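User: I'm new to structure prediction. If I give you an amino acid sequence, what do you actually give back? Let's try with this one:
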Amino acid sequence: MALSAAAMMLGVSSCKDGAASSEDAAFADSLATSFAQFQGAQLRMQTPQMKAQFGDSFNEDEFLKGFEAAAGLDTANVSYMIGYSIGIQTVYQANQWGKNGVKVNPKSIASDVVKAYRDTTINVQEVYMQFQELNAKLQQKIQAAEQAKAEAEAQKNLAEGEKFVAKQKQADKDIQTTASGLSYKIIAAGEGEKVSDNCEVEVKYVGKHIDGSEFDNSNGEAVKFNVNGVVPGFAEGLKLLAKGGKATLYVPGNLGYGPQGQPYAGIKSNEMLIFEVEVVGFTKVEESQDNK
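Assistant: Good question. You get back a string of structure tokens that encode the predicted 3D arrangement of the chain. For your 292 residues, that looks like this:
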């Protein structure tokens, strides 16, 4: 992508430098402006991805400063531009290792690259196999570190959920907890028979994080689904209600989406979720239909 952009910029520059007329110059200016606007807008769209990838280390002002610095390079020296682009990738790789606890010196790597480039006695296959071996060990280290981090995060979120519910129960004595760990408050029990496993329910609901922000909402419409098709805590809560029943459910992580969470929905590992539910109605599903 960097080389393609450089090639396009080279083309624009050449057009402007060799402009034979004011019409050519105007065209070159329009082309350059259009390209710049397109690339700027595209980079803005990619910013959330870069922030997600690099976290707090990504700074928009510094990013733009680095981009503008590239304009000072000698674009007529194509060889230099290619080397610079590959060098940036090498430095980036070194920094990534550093983030995973393997500290290396990018300048030392650059120096060794130059030496290896000029050393015709080096056997490419041999050094490649050696690097692959070391890289495999590195990946094992990274995976172990990531797993440990994920487990710690899962335990932290589970503890935060427990602390949150304990505080809610202290403030509201109507909140009860089942043997499985589901906490709930019945607002209206409803009338008639309660929901059971073999039921297709119509439910209005709002799903919230413990900070009060929403991650899902039926927007006042009744949604149909099978009780057995939802997370255990949500299903258990529905079975406490009859038609017309309303409740607030506090679903702990182990009864929700578990350690894996639901990243695309913004649900973290072992995160406690709050559901405000209303059972509009339900129908029992015959066993024979279930097994078809």
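You can read the tokens as a compact description of the fold. Here is one thing that stands out. The beta strands are 176-177, 183-188, 191-194, 199-208, 214-217, 223-226, 242-243, 246-251, 273-284.
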